[in-house]
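On to our target:
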Amino acid sequence: MSTHTPHPLESSPGVDGMSAEQKAETASLGDIVGDISSGLSTLMRQEVALAKAEARESASQAGKAAGLFSGAALGGWMAALFLSLAVWEWIAGAIDNRGWAAVIVMAIWAVIAAVLAAMGRTEMRRVSGLPRTVETTKRVPDALKGQETT
């Protein structure tokens, strides 16, 4: 007498009343390919939905951060403006000429702007874009054809 205990998936009936083993025995190649295609489509839709949800959440957080940075920039600009006015008045009192004091403050800001522009240009030249993404994207068509290059 056999004491074989069937695997739960072998004997449990599916939605249509057939066990997985019975389905495998009676399924045609077209049915199997159709099931795989349907499963992949469902998986891709779920992945896209997840990506959209994550993107919405990230965009919301980025928007909030951008708003806070904008407020900080406005506060910094106001501080620089009033500091400039104070320096202008101080220089005007020292040299007894408001016009030249304004030119001196403007020259200080021009030097600051030039230094920041040069630093920004240097940093921008270091930006390389997405070299790995571009490289892997170029290989996708060959990989789909089964001719992946390394």
